[in-house]
Protein takeout-like
Amino acid sequence: MFHIIIAIIFSVFISVQSVPTPTFQQCKKTDVTCLNGNINTIFQKSIKGDQDLGIKSVDPMHHKEIDGQLSVIEYQLYNSTVEGFSKCEVVNTKLDLEKRELNFRVLCPVLVMYGVYNISGTLIVMPIEGHGDYKIVCKGYDMQVETDIMIQQDNNGMKHISIKYFKADGELTEGMTTDLQNLFGGKQPQLAKDVLKFVNENWGPVAKVLQGPVFGANYGKIVKNINKVLKHVPLNQIIEE
Ligand SMILES: *[C@@H]1O[C@H](CO)[C@@H](O)[C@H](O)[C@H]1NC(C)=O
Ligand SMILES: *[C@@H]1O[C@H](CO)[C@@H](O)[C@H](O)[C@H]1NC(C)=O
């Protein structure tokens, strides 16, 4: 009996100890490397999720619908999966507590997205229309995320930051391959081929035109998770106040 109790106490102790809590350093305000490390840790945790904190992983990420209403082109993406955010890295973090701003870049080696698309309009110079399966592989995405933050106190009087507004932009640096099934309803195979060739050859500008709504959807989910993580990390664990 005694041994069982010891074993239980011991195993409780072990399991509490072995919960992988991220290690933060209390950074000096001017120590940008230290601060970037903390924000990167928070970002990674936000992507991978944490069962103990009830935070679901967003790699893979799922979107029921993304609605892209742009001026000359409109598209919807249905039942989409995004894979690869857990391989991304945060760089160039800037946290300004006075201005209530947190800005950083996210470098992603490979992001893959697939599902069902619906598109109609003009893509730069090409007419495009279709509805079917799609798959996009993006290499070397350099994303800039700018946020406005709030500082609030929890019940224990500890200050926490949270993101109340974000905007995300970015450039592809290495390439993108796009597959769109059933362009023009399969009725204009030569035009479909030409459009796909154009999309794959002009990946940089094509991504720039189309990425906005996808960025909004992706970072909407990521920022939600970042805020959940930040609830468990007092500000003074991240930076000296
Ligand atoms: C949605 O996508 C998943 C994964 O690609 C697939 O297994 C599922 O059948 C799709 N659901 C619908 C309703 O198309
Ligand atoms: C695709 O878009 C067209 C025109 O924008 C719309 O009429 C159609 O209902 C859409 N189809 C689906 C399946 O969303």
